[in-house]
Amino acid sequence: MNELLGVMRRLRGPGGCPWDQEQTHESLRPYLLEEAAEAADAVTAGDAAELAGELGDVLLQVAFHSVIAEEAGTFSYAEVERGIVDKLVRRHPHVFGETQVAGSDEVVANWQAIKAAEQGGRVRPPSAKVPSGLGALAREAAAQNLAGARPDARAAREALEQALAGADGDAHAVADVLGAAVAWARALGVDAELALRDRTSRTLAELDRAAGGDGRA
């Protein structure tokens, strides 16, 4: 990591790269999202070499933001690393402490309790728990999770059919149908965001084959 940080400092420093020198936390936001999405695609593709490369691009974003913050005197990479290490140790008392757990459900419950204690017991509004950078389907699923338990699959399917039957053909109706589809996916234990991403990837692969290409840029 020190070598990567050194490269970034060189790129940002005198005589470095004009493009890298111009970047800010704000300007890098789309790249952070893009690189994370491409890493997720590599996981889906099952290509280990591709995944290694994409994770490198994600790590580059961590280094880039850390060097920008270092220049501004706000934080350093060492603080980023120390923060996540301390958090992992603190939130896994069943591994690094004496706490006993019966399964992953208790792990999650403990994590949330420790997180709340770290925040001084302050209750965060629901909107603060759903990142705006998530895809629309993922945000809807997260909002629904906050709103209540996973719905019954049959009831969710019926709600989806009712939403379709009552759709007026405007944007609000489409949103209602999509929301109902996400609820149905949740009831089935399916991640709607990933399911649709996989379907889109298959569609694009078919278009590539039809065009005589191999799907590589």
TrEMBL record:
It holds the Pfam family MazG. Residues 23-96 form the NTP pyrophosphohydrolase MazG-like domain. One of its GO terms (molecular function) is ITP diphosphatase activity. Its EC number is 3.6.1.66. It comes from the Bacteria. Transmembrane segments: none annotated. InterPro entries: MazG-like_dom, NTP-PPase_MazG-like_N, NTP_PyrPHydrolase_MazG. Keywords: Hydrolase. It is an enzyme of class 3 (hydrolase). Gene3D superfamilies: MazG-like. PANTHER family: NUCLEOSIDE TRIPHOSPHATE PYROPHOSPHOHYDROLASE. This is XTP/dITP diphosphohydrolase. The lineage of its organism: Bacteria, Thermotogati, Deinococcota, Deinococci, Deinococcales.
